[in-house]
Amino acid sequence: MAATTSTGLMARNWWAVLIRGLISIIFGVMVLVWPGLALTSLIWVLAAYIFVDGIYAIISAFSHRDHYRHWWLTLIEGLIGVVAGVLAFLYPGITELTLLYVIAFWAIFTGIMEIIAAWRLRQEIKGELLLGLSGLASLIFGVLVLLQPAAGVLAILTIIGVYSIVFGILLVMLAFRLRSHHVPATTRVPGMSAM
Fold it and tell me: Which pTM does this prediction carry?
């Protein structure tokens, strides 16, 4: 019963996953189209993205806490995103290397949390592979950033842009998969239990 309720709740909120994916795609395109952005501008845009993504994760955690036993993992992911975003806003003059490590560890932690969520949801929804792939993309991105810290932030803009677009596309695909699971209350057959 809890699994069905959790799946139904995720399906009802498919649009939130879609918005998160679209924001990620827009951010990635901005980074690729304007590679000459000043470092400070990049930090502001990245900080805003990480902060908004963290807020989304926190809202998602609290809205699923009654139906998803491990909701606190999503909450931790969101809190780390909010803290990383706020730190980048408050200290835009931090060294490039420090910013790289903040980005890398945020991406690695986010990736691990999404892979865990996909593993736990594998029997509840059919789109869990897309969530797992987005987590894997995030994890690989974080590791690549850690392996090339000397390259500097501006030198890895292509990696940041491509990662963001791939991550966003996977989330958009997941959102539409979740949407196909959503059955509006008005189309339910009388006598059927709520999904």
Answer: 0.59
